[in-house]
Amino acid sequence: MKYVNTARTVPGGPDKVGVLITNLGTPDAPEKAPLRRYLKEFLSDPRVVEVPRLIWWLILNLVILNIRPSRSAAAYKTVWTDRGSPLMFHTQDQARGLQEALAERYGDDIVVDFAMRYGSPSISEVLDRMLAAGVTRLLVMPLYPQYSCATTGSTFDAIAADFTRRRNLPSLKFISRYYDHADYIGALALSIRTFQQEHGTPDRLIFSYHGTPQRYCDEGDPYYCECIHTTQLVAELLDLPEGSYMTTFQSRFGREAWLQPYTDEILKSLPGEGVTSVQLICPGFSADCLETLEEIGEENREYFMQSGGKEYTYIPCLNSDPQHISVLAQLAEEELSGWLESRLN
Ligand SMILES: C=CC1=C(C)c2cc3[nH]c(cc4nc(cc5[nH]c(cc1n2)c(C)c5CCC(=O)O)C(CCC(=O)O)=C4C)c(C)c3C=C
Ligand SMILES: [Fe+2]
Ligand SMILES: [Fe+2]
């Protein structure tokens, strides 16, 4: 049999709406072997590293996978919790919150689940489960507010690849971006305002986004423009004075130029310009993870303080805050309106 038959739908049978939230994925444990497995899958994706395959295979297998797993494992250990990786437990909480919010309005004809692009739970195993539960219409929501070929694009590849092996396909909707959605911008603005009520206003508010190679942007990836736009919309909503905020890019990997300015270089140079108190926010991450908690929360704090900085605070991601859950519920409802109309309680 060439095609798997995970969903044998029949007229009058189960006919549910499924909402699948996805994120990047994370290692199973902060140890060398799970890190090696995770990095191998992630960094072998041609959407993530756009380098000729044979050259990249040699670099990845002979160099990176021999050095990076133990270094990354040590970094993951600093953020690991009783519930495992922060990215994992925040995503679980987001799925639960979204399920409850949607069930309140639409009952149990709607099924919410989550999957990871790399590692587990994989997109295919979760789709097996959802389709077996009677999902005939599927909304995929990658939790990347700004579209990038390396993240959102790759998630679409995984859905499409999964569908090539199935006989009976559900109807499909896919959210490519929500960087300018009023509710998302409002939730970010509220989190900044609430944080500043307790911690005061810094000399500079820094919006730090995960970087990508500059080349991807030059070749048409809209990610950079969408990040700049998100910052601008939040700044307008909060009425931030020009010069009191900026956009930077973090998590550089490899030797080629990435999107600039680089977060770490900016933090090293600001104290020399008289900027000694900063607040950092990472609006491109829908959940706290290694890149926010360790890289922004710890590593970059050191750079700033060692360069003469005095006050450095990090504003957490929206995670599973009620405000964020209602952003996700609103996004889902806007996409599903046609599918859900007949199911309103
Ligand atoms: C090698 C190239 C990479 C590109 C391009 C890239 C783009 C990209 N990544 C995110 C979100 C996350 N990345 C995370 C970790 C992470 N990212 C890379 C590399 C690239 N990312 C690596 C090697 C790692 C692993 C950690 C390490 O070894 O340093 C994470 C955190 C995962 C976790 O478990 O906590 C997220 C989230 C975005 C949004 C993006 C492009 C826009
Ligand atoms: Fe990354
Ligand atoms: Fe990092």
TrEMBL record:
Q: EC number(s) on record? A: 4.98.1.1
* Residues the record lists as binding Fe(2+): H210, E291
InterPro entries in alphabetical order: Ferrochelatase, Ferrochelatase_C, Ferrochelatase_N
- Cellular localisation: Cytoplasm
| Main localization (coarse) | cytoplasm
An example of a GO molecular function for this protein is: metal ion binding
Cross-referenced SUPFAM superfamilies: Chelatase
Alphabetically ordered keywords of this record: Cytoplasm, Heme biosynthesis, Iron, Lyase, Metal-binding, Porphyrin biosynthesis
Name of the protein in question: Ferrochelatase
Organism source for this protein?
Answer: Pseudohalioglobus lutimaris
Taxonomic lineage from the root: Bacteria, Pseudomonadati, Pseudomonadota, Gammaproteobacteria, Cellvibrionales
Question: Which gene underlies this protein?
Answer: hemH
